[in-house]
Amino acid sequence: MKIAILSSIHWRTPPTKYGPWELIASHVCEGMVKLGHEVTLYATGDSKTEARLKWICPKPLMEDPTLESKVYQYLHAASVFEDADQYDLIHNHYDAYPLVFSKLTKTPVVTTIHGFSSPQVNRIYEKYSNTYFVSISYADRKHAPDINYVANIYHGIPVEEYSYNGKPDSYFCYIGRISPDKGVHSAIKLAKKLSVTLKIAGLVASENQEYFEKEIKPFLNSKIQYLGLVDEKDKKILLKNSIGFLHLNTYPEGFGLTLIEAMASGTPVVGMELGSVPEVIDNGKTGFVVKNLKEAENAMKNIGLISRENCRKRVEENFTLEKMISEYEKVYLKIVKGP
């Protein structure tokens, strides 16, 4: 098949440090190339791929403030639809907004919904029901239950790139966006109460700078550490040496890529019972799904009861790159071939 992959231009594809949407777009793109399909990736000009690369935006928007976001977002999304007749299918990883072009072409469009960027974005999904949608968890479908889903495909990772560690250090960790909805403040609260070491790494976006200054920075010390935005190598080291990963989210998680990255390293996860978390964590076997901070505290005390081998095995059986790529190829074939 001739496939166009439309990635985000907020970060490079694949990202150097942060960019979960771009990472999955890259995995899908490279996976389809390996399967023999003719793939074109629409991403930033500095992106790395074995596919053909087409770009409008030279660098990631988040790394170059001189680039006006809306200008490049529109140009980027339009470029793939201007080329649409060259492809059997367009796979959109760039939110709802590119779909406004979808009725201008006969080329089918499938969108992986990585998240719901606003409460009103459903108006786009509902209007452009001529397209197809893939959810990343069944829980995430509740935000838009009535659109044209063709599959639910969990994220997958190259498990062999994550070193398993059966004998971790004694610290807990969190990696991801530093924001209220990820519950980093709650992780700090419990780490202080239990007098354990907590290592935090991730992106502090401009809209979360005040949160960081008020809720995170004042509590940093030798035991509560903020490591900044780490690269892939350091992230994997941080995960494999951690006794437990804290994901005390305050909102319904769409999927939670770091949850499976942690488990692939053998590290159990403590996550709130919101959104996809119960689908990703096997409660009591690969971590604990908790309802409140009291339960989270007890989970942290009992983290040693979780088999780190079970954590790795769950990812190997459910969240591999090969499984994700295979399921996307089935979706492509179903759409292109028709009923």
UniProtKB/TrEMBL annotation:
Determine the domain of life of the protein's source: Bacteria
Q: Which residues form the Glycosyl transferase family domain?
A: 169-318
Q: Which organism is it from?
A: Candidatus Woesebacteria bacterium GW2011_GWA1_39_21
Q: Which GO terms describe its molecular function?
A: glycosyltransferase activity
List the InterPro entries hit by this protein, alphabetically: Glyco_trans_1, Glyco_trans_4-like_N
Question: Which Pfam family is one of this chain's hits?
Answer: Glycos_transf_1
Q: What is the lineage of its organism?
A: Bacteria, Candidatus Woeseibacteriota
- Reply yes or no: does the keyword Transferase apply: yes
Q: Which UniProt keywords apply?
A: Transferase
Q: Where is the Glycosyltransferase subfamily 4-like N-terminal domain?
A: 27-133
This one is known as Glycosyl transferase group 1
